[in-house]
Amino acid sequence: MAAPADLRRTVIENCAVATVDAQDTEYASGHIVVAGNRIESVGAGRAPEGLTGVVRRIDATGHLATPGLVNTHHHFYQWITRGLATDHNLFDWLVALYPTWARIDEPMVRAAAQGSLAMMARGGVTTAMDHHYVHPRGAGDLSGAIIGAARDMGVRFTLARGSMDRGEKDGGLPPDFAVETLDDALAATEATIDAHHDTSFDAMTRIAVAPCSPFSVSTELLRQGAELARRRGVRLHTHGSETREEEQFCKELFGMGPTDYFETTGWLGDDVWMAHCVHMNDSDIAAFARTGTGVAHCPSSNARLAAGIARVPDMLAAGVPVGLGVDGTASNESGELHTELRNALLVNRLGAHREKALNARQALRLGTYGGARVLGRAEQIGSLEAGKLADLVLWKMDTLAHASIADPVTALVFGAAAPVTLSLVDGRPVVEENHLTTVDEDAVARATRDEARRLAQIAAGA
Ligand SMILES: [Zn+2]
């Protein structure tokens, strides 16, 4: 794709390049030219001669360039409730934490979003998402606070506007004071689409419709939420098939397993992606493949809450779109996506396929192109190809942590988290020399500590 001659260009040379394109093209020493907010060219050897408007030329010797990492499942607000209920399974953990979560307000959510985003961005995430489903009455403009934090950080972002309307009195898990009414949840979700959803190719903000889970929302909210999403042309997101207890809950209440329940409520389709999908039988996986329903695989959270091992190799073999998610940081205190690249590979090898389960390149694909696909953005991001948006990372691979590993993709996935020399989002630097360029990391850390203490005090007094 030819770029206008007046565009400002950044030239990156002398690095290994893993494009994660359809052929998994890699260059042992290659170049990338960024023009404006797009990738203009990627290839072997040095950049073409005679480029005009070059404002920056980077000698990236000792680095690996990859597409920016894409996170497909998170709950930002949990950044200020990390390290609690550490030895619980999902349902017990939820019951322990709901009363605290129900006390969040706008300053807490803003600080938690900044913390979550900063942790991901400094580790090479260029596209983030937040599934935010706790909306206490009078808590303020939580969606606006979260979107503002993502804009300030400079990362591409999907807000999955979540909701819960099945409280304890209706047989659900959340306390009644933590849920919205059906009508309020739908109206607020549509207002968020009106205010923030951007359909353009290079959109920095998109909105999805995201009721929380089968055990915290009514059948009607799932059904009408799906209708709303399709009427407005936005994507659908929820939690599904996370634990055996959820499967049991669905069988008792609805007379069927979660995947069949989702199908009856309009929740299978190529505009849907679901977190976890741990307890899936062959026919569930076939239904996801047939409908193009995507999966956000969250191996660390699934291990933390003893949920089980998702059948990712079987999903990939069936053609199910799969991305990676850190999940909320109350169930994955790390909060960075490299952990998920590594754990996706390691945890799946503990399953039925053993050492054949996943390799390093498949793990990198899950964390980049796979994530772009489940977020509905594969045409724009997720691989390094001419014409795509300039979301990319230069990983420093010549330090103690990785220098003795010959293959850089193996080093990146199997090794420790690599330092990020440069992360570009939409052609703009978000990380330089391992430091965030857009926010003061220490100030964010202090704000998150202060808001975590304030929430703990309010919750203790409640
Ligand atoms: Zn989650």
Automatic annotation (TrEMBL):
<dbReference type="InterPro" id="IPR006680">
    <property type="entry name" value="Amidohydro-rel"/>
</dbReference>
<protein>
    <submittedName>
        <fullName>8-oxoguanine deaminase</fullName>
        <ecNumber>3.5.4.32</ecNumber>
    </submittedName>
</protein>
<dbReference type="Pfam" id="PF01979">
    <property type="entry name" value="Amidohydro_1"/>
</dbReference>
<keyword id="KW-0862">Zinc</keyword>
<dbReference type="InterPro" id="IPR032466">
    <property type="entry name" value="Metal_Hydrolase"/>
</dbReference>
<dbReference type="InterPro" id="IPR011059">
    <property type="entry name" value="Metal-dep_hydrolase_composite"/>
</dbReference>
<dbReference type="GO" id="GO:0102127">
    <property type="term" value="F:8-oxoguanine deaminase activity"/>
</dbReference>
<dbReference type="GO" id="GO:0046872">
    <property type="term" value="F:metal ion binding"/>
</dbReference>
<feature type="domain" description="Amidohydrolase-related">
    <location>
        <begin position="65"/>
        <end position="412"/>
    </location>
</feature>
<dbReference type="InterPro" id="IPR050287">
    <property type="entry name" value="MTA/SAH_deaminase"/>
</dbReference>
<keyword id="KW-0479">Metal-binding</keyword>
<keyword id="KW-0378">Hydrolase</keyword>
<dbReference type="GO" id="GO:0019239">
    <property type="term" value="F:deaminase activity"/>
</dbReference>
